[in-house]
Amino acid sequence: MGLVEKRSVTLRGHRTSYSLEKPFYDDLVAIAASRNMPLAALVASIDEARPAGANLSSALRLYVLDWAKRTASGK
């Protein structure tokens, strides 16, 4: 699948990082573009929705997976 790349983002005024494989990152960029929103805003919305203590990188991957499933099923 490819190497994991670490990226940084500011969430609620604090710098944090997440690690994603390139295909997941590319899909996040595509999702943000399709919603006409900055990538950082999409990551922030996913971060706000994740359960307390859940890993941000995992939450991002699960979001992309859910998006891919909904897109494939036409929902």
Automatic annotation (TrEMBL):
Superkingdom, taxonomy of origin: Bacteria
InterPro entries to which the protein is assigned, alphabetical: RHH_dom (IPR027373), RHH_sf (IPR038268)
Residues annotated as domain Ribbon-helix-helix: 5-67
Pfam families: RHH_4
Designated name of the protein: Ribbon-helix-helix domain-containing protein
Organism (species): Aquamicrobium soli
